[in-house]
Write a structure and sequence with these properties.
Elements: H1 3-9, H2 36-43, H3 58-71, E1 75-79, H4 82-93, E2 99-103, H5 108-120, E3 124-128, H6 133-140, E4 147-153, H7 165-174, E5 178-182, H8 187-190, E6 200-204, E7 218-222, H9 225-240, H10 245-256, H11 258-278, E8 282-286, H12 296-302, E9 309-314, H13 317-326, E10 332-333, E11 343-345, H14 357-362, E12 369-373, H15 379-390
Parallel strand pairs: 2-3, 2-4, 4-5, 5-6, 10-11
Antiparallel strand pairs: 1-7, 6-7, 8-9, 9-12, 11-12
The protein binds pyridoxal-5'-phosphate.
Length: about 400
């Protein structure tokens, strides 16, 4: 089956006596056993029947299986949030004395996990520029045996930098290092990191997977089934960041339109990026679909589309950025992304507050940078709003 069909029909639920088109929401905390022999079969994994929703639940399993197939993995684990997926995955792959290499620009909370939480457990991290694979080779040198994980997003948050997945995986795997990729911005519709070499893909399913801004959720997908079992039962279930059955059901609903939405999101984003690039008050547009963008060629080689996240800088620094954002009507000021509504935010003031001033400057995240999550409204309306606010500068 192809992507759009899989997103709707993959692993269809067993229809019950009522023959409902849609799967039921198994809103239950626990499951009932027939007798102690049944208990024994389930507890020894001879049967994959259910025990307790913190371990698994049919609505969660349906969502996990659908994500597994869309990402081309062997198994998936659903989580209560993207951060639950990311922190559990990192804790599952690292132990005291290890090091994790992260790309210099990643989601703010992921940066906090790497630079503040992991060090409390004697796990160090280094933030380097993975958009240049040679930086990784240099960082690993000849005798770095501490690094066990390379972690990044591509396109990355908030400046859309592109990391060459194949190259990074080759360098890491030569040294037995695992590669974990946050595929939130691209979604499996535009990019399949596992097929390009990654070991684990993580998502904030809160974003495009859900698509309607009404769920917080996460998921991890991997090619190694033993790893998935461990991530599910030793980390997700024990740390306890389990997704609720109702939210899994909303995600299944969101997935049905993922392809349709991503095609339209991208179409809109290409128009808006083109408009911004020509605007005299805009000094820089960061969008992988623009031929002028640094990572454009790599993006073209590893993605089937460029997504709908755009960042841009305006003339006049912080004051101008403030004026733009404070004058919005149709476009909403909000963190998060991937919704039907177009959202704008200031990474320095909002999503990337966790980065120090020095780090923001060093990583090229200027105070005048604004990030747009292009929604599904008519682009003529979004552009006329941008035209109005930019004309105030
Ligand atoms: C939102 C986001 C996260 C965190 O996900 P939550 O669902 O908010 O916990 C992680 N990575 C990226 C790229 C994100 O956009």
């Amino acid at each position: 089956m192809n992507f759009d069909t899989l997103a709707i029909h993959g692993n269809d639920h067993k229809r019950n006596a009522e023959n409902a088109l849609n799967p039921p929401i198994f809103q239950t905390s626990t499951f009932v056993f027939k007798d102690l022999d049944h208990v024994e079969d389930v507890m020894s994994f001879k049967s994959d029947d259910y025990v307790y929703t913190r371990g698994n639940n049919p609505t969660l399993r349906l969502f996990e299986n659908r994500m597994r197939d869309l990402e081309g993995g062997k198994g998936a684990v659903a989580f209560a949030s993207g951060m639950a997926a990311i922190s559990s995955t990192l804790f599952s792959l690292l132990k005291p004395g290890d090091n994790v290499i992260v790309h210099k620009t990643i989601y703010g909370s992921s940066y906090t996990v790497a630079t503040k939480l992991l060090p409390k457990y004697n796990i160090t991290s280094s933030s380097i520029d993975l958009s240049n694979p040679e930086t990784l080779e240099k960082a690993l040198g000849r005798d770095d045996d501490k690094t066990k994980v390379v972690y990044f997003e591509t396109p990355s948050n908030p400046n859309l930098s592109i990391v060459d997945i194949r190259r990074i995986c080759t360098i890491a795997h030569e040294r037995g290092i695992k590669v974990v990729i946050d595929n939130t911005f691209a979604t499996p519709y535009f990019q399949k990191p596992l097929e390009l070499g990654a070991d684990v893909v993580v998502h904030s399913a809160t974003k495009y997977i859900c698509g309607h801004g009404d769920v917080v959720a996460g998921v991890a997908v991997a090619k190694d089934m033993n790893y998935i079992q461990s991530l599910k039962f030793d980390y997700m279930a024990e740390f306890g960041g389990v997704l609720s059955p109702f939210n899994a059901w909303l995600l299944l609903r969101g997935l049905k339109t993922l392809g349709v939405r991503m095609r339209q999101h991208e179409k809109n984003a290409l128009k808006i990026a083109g408009y911004l690039e020509k605007h005299p008050m805009v000094t820089k547009v960061m969008y992988p679909g623009l031929p002028s963008f640094e990572g454009h060629e790599t993006a073209k080689a590893q993605m089937s589309g460029f997504g709908a996240m755009i960042s841009f800088e305006v003339k006049g620094g912080l004051e101008s950025a403030k004026k733009v954002i404070n004058s919005l009507n149709l476009i909403q000021i909000a963190v998060s992304l991937g919704d039907c509504e177009t959202l704008m935010e200031s990474p320095a003031a909002m999503t990337h507050r966790g980065y120090s001033r020095e780090r923001l400057a060093e990583f090229g995240l200027s105070e005048s940078m604004l990030r747009i999550s292009v929604g599904l409204e008519d682009t003529a309306d979004i552009i006329s709003e941008l035209e109005r606010v930019l004309s105030l500068l």
